[in-house]
Specification:
binds iron/sulfur cluster; globular; 5-stranded mixed β-sheet; 180 residues; 5 strands
Length: 180
């Protein structure tokens, strides 16, 4: 698919914005992994999708060498105010649904695509990840978050001419697909 077709496909599953991702600009940083270890999101050591289960920075740097094309996608939620947790959760759910749909739409043409999501995987429900006692229940749908991979999401967006901050009382979820 050319870039235009990729963007159209992303918009057709509902994403609010989509654009080409320049794979050569991705930087996998220890400081981001260190922020994960601070466990502010309560996913560190509790999910197969997050550190320390996520690939190492070296593995990520090696992995991107296999990809020449990428796609960045966003879901934007418009909040009534900064405490509008209902819309924050609803936007996250919309984003997760769109992410799965786009993954399905792209995998026929890109069977080796590498998806990177937003935040820890919530497929089994909050606090119900099988980690570390049992294998992931849906390994074919396991995506590491961009942060878990060591990426500064705001920087990835701006490096690729996409907005990260969509204005007052908005929330933005960003995900990426590496395509060979
Ligand atoms: S699919 Fe379930 S077991 Fe696998 S990472 Fe997600 S929450 Fe954990």
């Amino acid at each position: 698919m050319n870039t235009e077709h990729l963007i159209e496909t992303a918009k057709s599953v509902g994403f609010d914005d989509a654009g080409a991702l320049d794979v050569s600009k991705l930087e996998f940083l220890q400081e981001v992994r260190d922020m994960c270890a601070a466990d502010k999101c309560h996913n560190y050591g509790r999910s197969w999708s997050c550190p320390p289960a996520a690939p190492s920075l070296e593995e990520m740097r090696d992995k991107v060498k296999n990809y020449s094309q990428g796609l960045l996608v966003q879901t934007v939620g418009h909040l009534e105010d900064s405490l509008d947790f209902e819309e924050m959760m609803a936007a996250a759910a919309r984003h997760a649904e769109r992410f799965d749909k786009l993954w399905d739409a792209l995998k026929a043409e890109y069977p080796d695509l590498y998806p990177m999501g937003s935040g820890g995987c919530q497929k089994c429900g909050p606090g119900n990840c099988a980690y570390p006692d049992a294998p992931c229940r849906f390994p074919e749908k396991l995506a590491y978050s961009m942060e878990a991979c060591g990426l500064v999401v705001s920087r990835v967006a701006t490096d690729n001419d996409m907005k990260y901050n969509h204005g007052k009382d908005t929330i933005c979820y960003t995900a990426a697909f590496l395509l060979d």
